[in-house]
Amino acid sequence: MCGIVGYVASENISDKARDVIIEGLARLEYRGYDSAGIALVEDSSIYCQKKEGRLDNLRSIISSHSSSARAGIGHTRWATHGGPTDENAHPHVSFDKRVALVHNGIIENYKDLANELAQKNILSLSETDSEVAVHHLALELEKDNDLFEAMRRLACKLEGSFTLVAIDSHNDGEIVAARRNSPLVVGIGEGAYYLGSDVAAFVGETRKALELGQDTVVRITPTDVDVVKFDGSKTQGTPFEVDWDLDAAGKGNFDTFMDKEIHEEPAAVRKTLTSRVDSANRLVLDELRIDESLLREVNRIIVVACGTASYAGHVAKYALEQWCRIPVEVELAHEFRYRECIVNEKTLVVAISQSGETMDTLMAIRHARENSSKVLAIVNTYGSTIARESDAVLYTHAGPEVAVASTKAFVAQITACYILGLYLAQVRECVSSETITNTLEELNKMPGRIEDVLACEDAVRSLARSMADVQSVLFLGRHVGFPVALEGALKLKELAYIHAEGFAAGELKHGPIALVEEDMPIFVIVPPVSEDVIHSKVISNVQEVRARGARVIAVAEENDLAVGNFVDEEYIVRVPSGVHALMMPLVTVIPLQIFACELARVKGYDVDKPRNLAKSVTVE
Ligand code: M6R
Prior knowledge:
By secondary structure, this protein is an alpha/beta fold. The chain has three domains: 3-246, Aminohydrolase, N-terminal nucleophile (Ntn) domain (Glutamine Phosphoribosylpyrophosphate, subunit 1, domain 1, 4-Layer Sandwich); 257-454, Rossmann fold; 457-602, 3-Layer(aba) Sandwich (Rossmann fold), CATH 3.40.50. Helices cover 36% and strands 23% of the residues. It contains 19 helices and 25 strands. The protein is globular and about 75 Å long. The protein starts with a strand and ends in an 18-residue tail after the last helix. The structure holds 5-amino-5-deoxy-1-O-phosphono-D-mannitol. 5-amino-5-deoxy-1-O-phosphono-D-mannitol is lined by residues 306-309, 353-355, 358, 361, 404-406, 490, 494, 616-617.
């Protein structure tokens, strides 16, 4: 939540700082889009502009302002304390106008800090928790004129989570920042250094970056970087090279990021599967840092995640239990965190996160580790906090996901979970090597199968357009189709703002069937025909809701003739036949994503930036 950019260069090329910051904000806008602002050091003073609403509002003000600044900061906001107004937008400027600051996170002791300021007659202009930080920073700066040291002292006073980035009007040759439980990376350019909530902020300028540890303060100058811990001791960042470029972070020829990312799903699965086996056809997960002997001892797995990532975990549960014969529970990270969980050194906690920055998931990880469990993270973002704080990491290689609604990350997460499941099965010798090889072969076919589904995209889009006025949609599934139903409903809620619910089809008669009324659209995820028992149960569920007037839209295999007896062909979305039952979610979820995307578009909503949401939920 909230995107932050910082830039300092050796030369003050006309408008460069302004443009780099605005471009960085554009690439971070998916993190929050309630307001945006920029502050530049110009002629030994702070030039600051901020505006409620989308970045374009700020752009229209700032584009006519010609700037010779070589240092500046920017912010795109997801509101926590105080509504999305101009006053509450960042940057905030100190009472003496010397310092400007941007903040991501929540300062929990802001009231105490505000009271201290009030005693000095320093009053906030905004309703935010962030503004107190800039005034305190200015007070600290008065003591020794050292912004780096002032930021360190300020960080020690704050409780909560924060990334703070500040500029000093008296010195345009440096920017300082501090981070605790909130993301920040450094970009290393030629004669310029950058700060960003993630590398997207500066990937157009440089792909060389530096990961920063927890509780660190950093100073960037045009040619160097210094990092200290909050206690003042010297430390360093960890260098890494960003493995994607500006094209990957752009929309290409697509209208929206979501469209592009849906079309990248075959590649996301393919790349996540790449280089996982050795010459003897054994799975090798070099990046894991957990000893195999510990994995053999595991007697329970708990998956922690939020939203779409948790549904990927629900899918994985079926495969992990089948292949590894270990009980698997899936917990929403925020629920796991605040209960007396029963875990120990034999529990493997698997944390799934696209961003690697979701605060709820991060807190669950810490909780699990404090309780002696090993944590294995499945993460898409290199160098993210969750990747750093886990005992082991398995990266999904989906590439940057920009649209707020998760799509390619979901299929990549399922793929990574399956690789993990097969690896555990191999280490624990609970399935034959032949089964592992065959299952991997099936997985390797999945990118092609997803492409086949994408080829039928137009039919799904026209179905969505014909349903533009629906008020409520239900989704039903069994077995791995159940989490797909939950995901289909989530996509529709977050993008099209209509009531949607996913149910286990077997649960229908225990209550939800009372919701069914004449012409209500119900998506049914039909299991493969080869799974005859659950297949026929789902066909019965189709009949039950049809008997009550529902309009069934079935997602079913090409060779599923039974479904055609009860659903009009125009309402059947066909997926390829012969897909391994556990891998069906990788194809059945695609039409649901396309449907939600198109329904949102036809209703005139912003597909990439749905209201009230942000891509990366970095506050609890
Ligand atoms: O970055 P994460 O995978 O940890 O994010 C978890 C959820 O916030 C995320 O999947 C969210 O539910 C998506 N917006 C759904 O499309």
